[in-house]
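User: hey, got a sec? need Membrane bound O-acyltransferase domain containing 2a folded
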Amino acid sequence: MATETKSCTGSALLQPISEIVDLPLDQVNFVVCQLFALLTACWFRLYLHPSKTSPFIRHVVATLLGFYLALFCFGWYALHFLVQSGLTYGIMIFTGVEHMHRYCFVVALGYLTLCQITRVYVFDYGMYSADFTGPMMVITQKITSLAFEIHDGLTKKEEHLKPSQQYLAVRKMPSLLEYLSYNCNFMGILAGPTCSYNDYIAFIEGTCYQRKRLESNGKENGKCKQSDPSPKRDVILKLGTCALCLLVYLTFYRVCPVERIIDDPYFTSQPFFLRVLYLYLSMLSLRPKYYFVWTLADAIHNAAGFGFSGYSKDGTPQWDLISNLRILNIELATSFKTFLDNWNIQTALWLKRVCYERCPYHPTAATFLLSAMWHGVYPGYYFTFITGISVTLAARAVRHNVRQHFLGSSTLKLFYDVITWASTQIAICYTVVPFVVLAVGPSLRFYWSCYFYLHLACVLLVVALPVKRRTSRENVQEKQSPSRSQPADQSIHSSTDNNCNQKEKTT
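Assistant: Yep! Here you go:
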């Protein structure tokens, strides 16, 4: 039954509700705790506002509430959050800042991997519902991000950092309370998302609004300047989105689960195009589960007053500083890259900041490997990432060789967009099936039933449509520019900037 409690390590207080709604107890605990966090966030913003209380009290309350929610959902497994945070904080304090970011990275990721291995292969392989390693994944992001930010702030000069690194650099070692509050506060302990340490401290101290006002290029009316912007409108909109997503998921995914296309003989005997259509509808009804979780987490942060990113051109406050997805951009994506750019945004930024921008050799391969390790030890994750590499290369080859032929008229462009939208949705569904079913057997059965069509198509496209080199023209310009108008050192600096920009575009 869906309401069995053997896989739930948290409180059994809500077991009657679990039986009524016919959902696993740990999922019921998670949703109830997030709703409690939402109400607490409103209270936190109104009654523990920085103008009324000290940062110390706000840190203490945020941390204690976070641990309470963790204990309710995961029981004593929540102690792993303390152990992981304590080990890495000790490394930060007792190890020199020159190397502590590397040690923290290895220890945090290693401890997370050890917990994932024991949970999957020792205790409960194939547990689809919430588990204690989920919050540890976000804590790992925060630990490693902060370690690199402290390293940048305490060991590097301002001119040696990129603009984004200058903004994120931490200039003093955090106290233990600040560290625990950042990692385990009640707003993000269960579902994240990750955020920068400087943004979190600015929120706690109440300086986030002033800094964003100075950074904003939009119009600010007198009311915005005199008082903090209200998140009420954005919170209500996000809660409405959550309700709609939850309704879609509970209504439709039970009707067309993805496992049916693998195990049900009736579906495996259907024509190929019908199976592809069913797969698309199945994944379309599955994604609202992730939309619900991430949008609710975003709303909780906004309700507490965290997430303000500045003002729009008309003076409207924007609350998308730590938003994790853009739903319309995902569903209407016309390329694999566009889909990924709008899915799990904060994790993509974390991978870029701690790996891609810092890895001296093969940064793309290293980033894929880190992403796979961070997600877990299920074989399905690695099937998905390997398939994703081939799809990315094929999509790049098609775009470089085909797209320009359809830009001559609006009709051709519309036709191209429709074809690429359908291709992207099919490719995404095909790629993420192992991510959903997790195990080797079902993944291979699915790909075999589809004759590995996308794998073969990607290989053929990469071979037949190689990506044209884009560096020849840049090399000619670099050879000409130093002799004409730039000194040697300026030319080298310009070349370095070009390389950095190319890296960011590739990411």
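Quick note: The first strand starts at residue 310 and ends at 311. Let me know if you need anything else on Membrane bound O-acyltransferase domain containing 2a.
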